[in-house]
Amino acid sequence: MPELPEVETVVRGLQKTVVGKTIALVHYSAAPAKMITVSNSFNGQDFSTLLRGKQIHSVKRRGKNILISLSGTMTLWVHLKMTGHFFYYNRSTPLDKHDLVLIEFQAPGNSIEPFHLRFNDYRRFGRLRLFRDDELWQQEGLQQLGTEPLEITAEDFVALFRQRQRMIKPALLDQTVIAGLGNIYADESLYAARIHPRKITSRISKKKLIELHGHIQRLLKKAIRLMGTSVDSYTGINGETGKFQKYLLAYHREGESCQRCGATIIREKIGSRSAHYCPRCQRL
Ligand SMILES: [Zn+2]
């Protein structure tokens, strides 16, 4: 699943390509009904009708969410979930059967821009939801979002985790605690800080939590610089893969040797998710 660095890469790609453009047409007949949501406050108007003629003002990220602000005080809230992708392609590029939503842009002289935006999602868990700006932050999934990991100070990070009595790995994945981490960067950060993923947060020393905070920020920034991790289907909006997978030390390395101590990296279910860690360097 795309995590903070991958979503940030997509957002930066969209900022460079579609901000300022005006939507001419939206095709979404291939999308499953649950993929597209239009707020009730639009009185039954169709997704495509509402978007037509709207200008894209900005594209921002909050946690793993993409927020596309449009003229007409509305926002298109997108979550890529498992395999959602935005592609900014030439219209002549052959369509893929998983290109489920197409957004065309106006060009001067009442014509269509040669490049358009595709929302492609082969597992179809991705979501595109249209809300009025004034109701957006009341929505479940946005309202409860925790702090941004690149914005929180070390002191606040320590306080946030020391007050909790739960295993650190599920706590890092909980978007209402801290928003944007997933399995990749949680496993890599815990490995870097030598913290066992089952360690109870309130029992982790202040010093260790400060180290963990530093590693989370360092790894996220490095991954953004390298345009994300492509271990599954993730790519940027031009179809380019990320490069952080070359630097993974724990995630997806089960059965391989720990680069610090030589022990075998293991993969184990913790909470409902798998965790990758070194049983020798990351002791309980
Ligand atoms: Zn080790």
Sheet-strand content, in percent, reads 15-25%
Order of helices and strands: HEEHEEEEEEEEHHHHHEE
What spatial form do the alpha-carbon principal axes imply? elongated
**CATH class annotation of the largest domain:** Alpha Beta
List the ions, cofactors and other small molecules found in this model: zinc ion
Tally of alpha and pi helices:
7
What are the low-pLDDT stretches, counting only 5+ consecutive residues below 50?
none
| Global Rg | 20 Å
Commentary on this structure:
The chain has 284 residues and is α+β, with helices and mostly antiparallel strands. The chain folds into two domains: 4-136, N-terminal domain of MutM-like DNA repair proteins (Alpha-Beta Barrel), CATH 3.20.190; 154-277, Helicase, Ruva Protein, domain 3, CATH 1.10.8. The protein is built from seven helices and twelve strands. Strands 1, 6, 7, 8 and 9 form a five-stranded antiparallel β-sheet that branches. A hairpin with a 3-residue loop joins strand 4 and strand 5. It is elongated. The two termini are 28 Å apart.
Summary keywords:
284 residues; N-terminal domain of MutM-like DNA repair proteins; binds zinc ion; 24% strand; Helicase, Ruva Protein, domain 3; alpha+beta
Secondary structure layout plus pairing:
Layout (H helix, E strand, L loop, with lengths): L3 H14 L5 E5 L8 E3 L8 H5 L4 E7 L2 E6 L3 E6 L4 E7 L8 E9 L3 E2 L2 E7 L5 E6 H4 L17 H9 L5 H6 L9 H11 L12 H20 L40 E5 L2 E5 L7
Parallel strand pairs: 2-10
Antiparallel strand pairs: 1-7, 3-4, 4-5, 5-10, 6-9, 7-8, 7-9, 11-12
Helix pairs in contact: 1-7, 4-7, 6-7
The protein binds zinc ion.
Zinc ion binds next to loops.
